[in-house]
Specification:
alpha/beta, Nucleotidyltransferase, domain 5, six-stranded mixed sheet, 8 helices, about 35% helix
Length: about 230
């Protein structure tokens, strides 16, 4: 997807160079304040992306079922539980989204998403809001994010990422209580859900447009003037 175009000055690129990042630290309210300050200090031609990944399993998450009163429900399982990892990033100003399905969730897989981000936002400075998963904090991943600003979320705070909300909604609609013939079929149908949303709908349903969204004030800065 194409990022917003605009008439901007004083921009920097997200090309080569060391990533601007703070060493991951323990959870704390001070970390949220620091992220807000970092966003307010970004250059005019910048984008803020929320990044996250989620697992899809062939055996569905069971949210509801039935059985005779007094008897436990039987759940039949067989074979190996196939798995895919969906990496995603959403522009917190425009709602534009990028998705990269992978077989695993390792550092190299996260770097595949970074490559997509660079391609989509060539000529823009990218600030990436992400958690401290090992695939993100690996030295190779930080090196691959050279030139980007990495905004580390507090530990154990998934609700601070709008992507976590989109993942949960997609699983409720597509994955819960549904058994697919193959994991690839489930991946295709799962990705159809967030891709079917308009940019405005994605921002609304993920909570970014809420008056209580924790980055609302920081994101009010005008990074560019739309054409």
């Amino acid at each position: 997807m194409t990022p917003c175009a605009g008439r901007c000055t004083g921009w920097i690129t997200c090309g080569s160079g060391r990533a601007t990042t703070s060493t991951p630290t323990p959870n704390g309210g001070g970390k949220k304040r620091r992220i807000r300050r970092q966003i307010r200090g970004l250059a005019p031609r910048s984008v803020v992306l929320a990044e996250d990944e989620t697992d899809l399993l062939l055996f569905p998450p069971l949210r509801a079922g039935w059985s005779k009163r007094g008897e436990a429900a039987r759940v039949s399982l067989s074979g190996r539980n196939a798995r895919r990892v969906i990496f995603g990033a959403m522009n917190l100003r425009t709602g534009t989204r990028l998705f990269v399905p992978r077989h695993k969730g390792r550092s190299a897989d996260f770097q595949a998403l970074l490559a997509e981000v660079r391609s989509a936002y060539r000529g823009w400075h990218v600030a990436l809001l992400l958690d401290e998963d090992s695939c993100h904090t690996a030295k190779a991943s930080v090196a691959a994010a050279g030139g980007m600003t990495l905004l580390w979320l507090p530990k154990r705070s998934p609700k601070l990422s709008p992507m976590d909300t989109l993942w949960g909604q997609g699983k409720d609609v597509v994955s819960a209580d549904k058994q697919y013939a193959t994991i690839d079929e489930q991946v295709d149908r799962f990705l159809c859900h967030p891709r079917s949303l308009s940019n405005q709908e994605a921002l609304h349903t993920s909570g970014v447009l809420s008056a209580n969204f924790w980055l609302r004030g920081a994101l009010s800065k005008e990074f560019c003037v739309l054409a």
